[in-house]
Specification:
Radius of gyration: 27 Å
CATH class of the largest domain: Alpha Beta
Largest sheet: 7 strands, mixed
Shape: globular
Strand content: 15-25%
Number of helices: 15
Strand order of the largest sheet: 13-12-16-17-20-19-18
Length: 494
Amino acid sequence: MKISPSKLKTILAIGENLNIEFKQAGDGPRADTFESVCAFLNTAGGDLLLGVADDGEVLGLPPKSIDAMIRNFVNVMNNPDLFDPVFTLYPNEVVFRGKHLIHVRVPESAEVHRFKGKCYKRVHDADVRVRGTEPIAQMFIRKQRIFTEQKVYPFVTKKDLRLDLIPRIKNMVSEENPWKDMSADQILKSARLLGVDAATGKRGFKAAAVLLLGSDDVIGDIFPAYKTDALLQKVNVDRYDDRDIVQTNLIESYDRLQAFGIKHLMDKFFLEDGLRVSLRGKILREMLVNVLVHREFTSSRPARFIIRRDEMFTDNANKALHYGVITPRNLEPEPKNPIIANFFHQIQLADELGSGVRNLYKYVRIYSGALPIFDEGDIFRLTVPLNAEHSPEATDIPKPTRKTTEKGGMKSGEKGGRKTVVKTVVKTVVKTVVKKEDEIVAILSGNPSATRQQLATATGLTVRGVEWNLKELKESGRIRRIGPDKGGHWEVIG
């Protein structure tokens, strides 16, 4: 399909990023062109424009050479000695402001591709060669488009499951949940933990059942690399100050990781709707459910939960559906392990899909005065900044009330109450500006080449508002510009 003039104009305005690549290709497509195609196919797809400089300047191609260039491009893509497996694309000639270009729309492929025997993936605006067995294996896992949790193991029986957890599970669900009155067999069936092996036709328990309720022995047999490594690295940053290696079922894994976090993190006073809530508990719940529920369990890479002086983070192997920094504005929630996610939802440890991002943006800002960073790739990393000095109390804005004595006057000590409220509101306005700065820093951490227009779209600011925030961030020493406005990038300093 030929690209529309408006879409072409938009691509040129955005510039190179995860899904856009420019090549000069004055004398025809070179090897780096096909490396980009390979990376697009292996990652999330994208648009390739030939005849455009890296900085977006439209150079054009010799009109008489366009047909030969397209034939050459198609021949390389269909030559198994060069491109494996082959993939047919449909380049189109386009004219922009009198200059002839070639546009190629590259979809994400269901397979892992190699160009000249080398595998590439897209990272920000660069084509990165993938080396090593584990990273390439992760690409194959992501391409499978199947849920690991649904694999059936006919040899697993109820004796291999921790059915002693069922009474506790029934206590965790809400009063209206039908699981309250179900037997263990009924809960296993309702939770879709039983299935049929497509290869043998035999009925058995799914991997989800093993992970949620399996004994430690059966979990170790089926998922030998499965573990979550909890580390405290405040003093001994090269090793650890405290450690818990968690290799049990997901329900008790949550308990142990929660206990580890409570042990090493302070809680902070905060009122929500007039009631005190545990900010530490709110944040830990979302972080730990994310690392336990949405990971790729077939990977040999263990998940981690690490607490340091100025941050804590979780990371885990991931079947990535998108790449880059996730914010509430660009969030497109899709389940990685829907059976496990539904089970956690039933026992009230998780809310609806996507709520974790929104909740963490809300509570981390109150807890730390900053924003969390969700960085999705073949390794998913969730970072929460820590700030021991930050107090959340200023964000709990009291509603102005006019209390009177029996005689109708203001109570003693309430003179100037309106002034206090005004000060609180001013503080809140300042915090809103800081929030936008933190959001921009989070985006630039994952995409240093982000344009002002991209930042405006992601944050909801105007372009002028983005420029003002960037100016403030540069003056405060949090970011700096490397290279020219076109072709350069941002470096996040702190």
